[in-house]
Write the structure tokens for this entry.
Amino acid sequence: MIKLENVDKYYNYHMDTEVHALKNVNLTINDGEMVAIMGVSGSGKSTMLHILGCLDSQTKGKYFLGEYEVCKYSSNTIAEIRNEEIGFVLQNFGLLSDKSVYENISYPLIFNPAVKYKMMKRLITKAAEDMLVSDFLKKPVKELSGGQKQRVALARAIVNRPNIILADEPTAALDKNTANDIMNVLINLNKNGKTVVIVTHDRSVAEKCNRIIELSDGEIISDKENIPA
Ligand SMILES: Nc1ncnc2c1ncn2[C@@H]1O[C@H](COP(=O)(O)OP(=O)(O)O)[C@@H](O)[C@H]1O
Ligand SMILES: [Mg+2]
């Protein structure tokens, strides 16, 4: 379970350039949900997803990830929690384009001391198989198509077998067919028990989720159940 309680996020707090990016956000996401977060550019979607992914922290309020109240822990412990619990698909893939597919998928494991070399190889191979990118393991990412890149980004997100997948605009850089294909991958991960949270400004992507949350100027203005067509 993910829970935000009275969360405010300011950038450049108390400075002339202060931005109030999230305003008193209250939100609970239960295990196994498939949620879309919608809103125009600048409405706070990425900010919210980064807080949920422990990539950034709120200015005020509380964030609970399962039994952990995230801000109570040291940054090392938070990094460990994130590594175990969360797979993140960054906006614009967030891959290292000169590095191979194999290396890109391996990154979350490098920071996981519990995973030994042999195990690492097995996990990378499995994630690549699940995402249908086994054939390109040795290729540099820059030689792949957009859809293949997103599959590599997804393989990297699932390699640690996290319970939660957070994806920031996962279809924005893709053509319609490829976007559909990637959405089906995310839907399947959700059917296999993962909690999936997708940031999107594309209504047709959001309509495939079971819940649609709309942000406007840092506030949740709507939060509705959705039955995919
Ligand atoms: N690192 C940052 N420093 C200052 N302002 C930021 C930063 N990141 C985002 N913002 C501002 O916070 C607001 C919300 O941004 P963001 O969460 O990226 O929106 P979205 O993902 O919905 O486009 C915007 O006004 C944006 O300019
Ligand atoms: Mg964004």
The helical segments are 45-52, 75-85, 101-110, 117-130, 146-158, 176-191, 203-206. The chain has seven helices and ten strands. The chain has a mean pLDDT of 94.
